[in-house]
Amino acid sequence: MGNSAKIFQKIKNDPAFKSMCIEFFQMAERASSINARNEGRHMLMRNSQMFYVDDASNTKLHDLLRASVKKLGPSFGSTKEVDRLLWRIVCHDWSLNADQKATKFIECLGDRAKSEYTYICANQLFRIRSKTRRVAVGPVEIIAASDPVQDIFDGHVNPEWTLTLGPEYAFSSTNGVKIQLPQTCWKVLVQASQSYVQEDAHWMIDVAISLIRLSHEYLLLEAIHRGGPALYPMVGKTEPMPMRIPESETNYLLLTPDGISTGGMWLPPKYIIDDAVISAMQAPDFTTKAQAIFAPDQGSLAERVGQGLGWLTRGRQSEDRAERFLFFFTAIEALLSSDDKSAPVVQNVARNAAVILGNDVSERAENASRIKALYADRSALVHAGKRNVSEPAVNDAQKISEELYTRVLKHIPLNNSFSSFQIDLGRATYGLPWPLA
Known about the structure:
It comes from Gluconacetobacter aggeris. With 437 residues, this protein is α+β, with helices and mostly antiparallel strands. It has helices at 3-12, 15-31, 34-38, 55-72, 79-92, 98-112, 197-215, 217-225, 275-281, 284-294, 301-317, 321-336, 345-357, 361-384, 391-411, 418-428; strands spanning 42-46, 49-53, 117-122, 126-129, 134-137, 140-144, 162-166, 170-172, 178-182, 184-190, 254-256, 259-261, 271-274. The strands form 5 sheets. Strands 3-10-6-5 form a 4-stranded antiparallel beta sheet. The longest helix is centred in the last third of the chain and has 24 residues, at 361-384.
């Protein structure tokens, strides 16, 4: 059963939830009457109609909104959209009684759980150098736009629109619709409420970036072979936001003992995708991993890996050392924290990370000590607000977190359950090699 069908069944088969819906629509009927107005209630304007509600009525509305959002889940549960749906039924379905309105509302919620959108935006982080013009990472595509630009839109184009290519996205409605697309685009298939499409699409793009980065050592080797790693976002360097043109010049003044510094210019790093990288991304091993990560089974290793990959990208994007440090540690804990809340977090994470990082026993002890030391900085930051994290500590956290994910992606099937992954790590902490045969 698909996720949308599960959501609908969960809503449909909850009699308590339907009772809440009926009570709300009964309240709405009373709130529209002249008597309600005469009782001195607060006026509420919805769909150009006036309703008069008291505190108890407001409570019923807010309780129903919270319950609806919780049932729809974080991707589909938009309070604003559910509120709009409720009052549209109230205002436009006068012939239905409260029970019928509740049934219609529940059916409409089920339809919202099927919402699917295609999100297109500028890709300023990748460049395709190949005759192949588009490559997919699960539901995320990287497209090198070319004429006809209409191909990106899959037929959803008004023939009166003017479509062109340029350095960045631009839109104008003066003298007809004109859309300028950048040379490289992201195209993402998103299942979410319309209110959350952009947010979810950007997260999916971040997951895809780290998956590409950590799956293909060729990206780094080729960057160096081309004459230096300047094109590749190296450890410790801020990775540009994937949708915006990065600033290549500093925009501040610095007063120094020797005078005033106006900063300078820098070359924003990019990921270059050529025939070799595209071939690797189209191989069954990579496409299987991408599919597992973007549509993970509940309780699978893929579910944890997908969460962590997004936080790795957020860490590389942040310019603030403390933020970078927290994001990298969030990624580490997404992969290694135990479902057992009574387990000592620091000890478990340090031991399990040391197992993944190497099979030499003395090396494992050193790695565990390094991670425990970094945890001390994390605790000072999270619990005491001390943001004075050193650059070496941040870079260490990035190296460790990216190495952990690289080795897991390389050695462990992502459709394995997370619990079995943890069991194998626990056994290896007694001196067994990892991964276990």
